[in-house]
Predict the 3D structure of the following.
Amino acid sequence: MSEQAAPSGAVTPDPPHTEVPPHKVPLLNAIDVEAGYFPGVNILNGMTLHAQEGELVGIIGPNGAGKSTFLKAVFGLVGVRSGTMALHGHDITGLRADELVRRGVGFVPQTNNVFPSLTIEENLQMGVYQEPKKFPERFEMVTTLFPMLGERRKQRAGSLSGGERQMVAMSRALMMSPGLLLLDEPSAGLSPALQDEVFLRVKEINATGVTIVMVEQNARRCLQIVDRGYVLDQGRNAYEGTGRELANDPKVIELYLGSLSQA
C-alpha cells in the first residue's frame, strides 16, 4: 500500500504517482486532475487514479473530499481545469456525457437516478436512446442479471423500493454495453440487507467483464469487495492500495474507517 499524502490539515509535497506498467495501458487513467463547480474554487486538487480492464476500484474518504466530483468530472458533468483523463489511452478530458456513453462509459448518480413516472421497461429504453435497435438484446442481458426487472417491466419506477430503484439505475447504465461503469454511492440510504444485495450485484456486474469505479461511503464494505482502493482527502490522494491493504492499515483505520464506517 502506498501512503500518498498526509491527512486533513497537513501540507506536504506532492507524492510520486503510482507507476503503471508501460505495456499495460489502463482502461481509465486520470492524472493530476483539478476540477470544481465555481470559478477559482477547486474540489479536486491533483487527484490521480487508474483502473485496469476488468478491475473493481473503490474510492472512499470523508464527506466533501471530492469523491463524487471525480466521477462527475470523468463523465463530463464537471469541468476539468487541469490534468488529463484517458480511456484506453485516448484523451477524454472535457468530452460531453453523450459522447462518453458512445465510447463505453456508464454513470449511475447517487440521487435522481430513475425516471419515476416511467415504467421499468421505459427507463431501460432510455438507456439505449442512442441505439434503440439494441433494446431487445440488451433487455435480455440485464434481466438475466436482474430477473425482477423483467417480471415487473410494466411497473412504474416511482413505486419501487430504494434497492429496486438502484437495480433499475444500474441496469439502465448497462444498456449500452459499457466497458467502464461509474457508481456514485450505490448503497446510500439503503438498509444493511439491501446494501448487501447491491454490493453482490456490483460484484456480479464486474464478473461479466465490466470495469467499475465506485464511490462508496460504506468504507469497510467497499474495501471488502474491491480489487484496489483510493482514499481521497481534500481532493487529493491520501492512500492507495488493495482493498485488503487499506482495510488493515492502522493509519487508514484510525483516520478514516472509524468515522466512515459509521457515516
Q: What stands out?
A: The domain at 25-111+179-260 is CATH 3.40.50.300 (Rossmann fold). Confidence is low (pLDDT under 50) at residues 5-18.
